[in-house]
Amino acid sequence: MFSVRWCLLFLGTIGFSFAARFADQVRKCNLDNRASLNACFTRQMEDLRPFMTTGIPELNVQVLDPMVIPVINFRQPTGPVSINAKFNQVQVKGMAKFTDAQVRVDPDRMRMDVFLRIPELRSTGNYEINGNVFVLPVSGTGSSWSILNGVTATGGSDLEIVGRRPNEFLRAKNTQINFKIDKTRIRLNNLFNGDQILGDTVNNFLNDNSEDVLDEVRPEISKILNDFVQKVLNDGLSSLPVDKFLTSSRRRA
After folding, report:
1. What are phi and psi of 78, to 5 degrees?
2. Pairing of strands 246-247, 29-30
3. Residues 6+ apart with CB under 8 A from 56
């Protein structure tokens, strides 16, 4: 769903050898030790924090902070908030500052659940929008920004193993992420072809009623978020064999 521009000269042989060392040094979690399994996976998540700002192209680990999303298509044809919107070149900053991360893994059910908080997410980009937000018509094309404070994400994915040893990989499916946002601020520039009075009216309404607006669009946003998170997970998992980060007596050939 998104791509990141890399400096090819920097990523040459240095990047390849670095990725190989990372794969060799990644923390292994023992599935037989249930008492420490969740703590191990939580530490794995912390181990990846420094790479959220650099990515590891050779392992398909994308840059997540800032996260660049070329296109987001949003369509909600019915309800109090009925809009068609398209967002381009969206850049989101703040993911690497997550706190209170917790990972819960159930090997028997092949399930992984995650909880984390992000103090603040800032995004910028371009938009096209047309529709209605409650009683107000909304239309325009221009630049936009948003600031989300106190983001809490909970949820997880079912997991399955694909391939054959020694080339087995995990794949995520049925990803479901729920989110809560304490405070939202948003600005859509150039609404109504630059009519400042109408534009300010809509922007003020969106900010003053952000919780109600978010509740109305939450199902569609959740769908977009779930598809995105699952793709990010599978991009990374597809290049790291299971035996690189999991060990178990049950897996010994």
Report:
1. -130, 170
2. parallel
3. 15, 18, 19, 22
Rounded Cα distance, 57 and 225, in Å? 22
Residue 89 Rama label (left phi>0; alpha psi -120 to 50; beta): left
Q: Which residue spans within 134-168 are E strands per DSSP? A: 136-162
Which residues contact residue 164 at a Cβ distance below 8 angstroms, ignoring those fewer than 6 apart? none
pLDDT band, very low/low/confident/very high, at 244 (cuts 50, 70, 90): low
Is 102 within 8 Å of 38 (Cβ atoms)? Answer: yes
pTM: 0.81
CA distance 26 to 246: 10
Q: Is 56 left (phi over 0), alpha (psi -120 to 50) or beta?
A: beta
Round to whole Å and give the CA distance between 143 and 203: 13
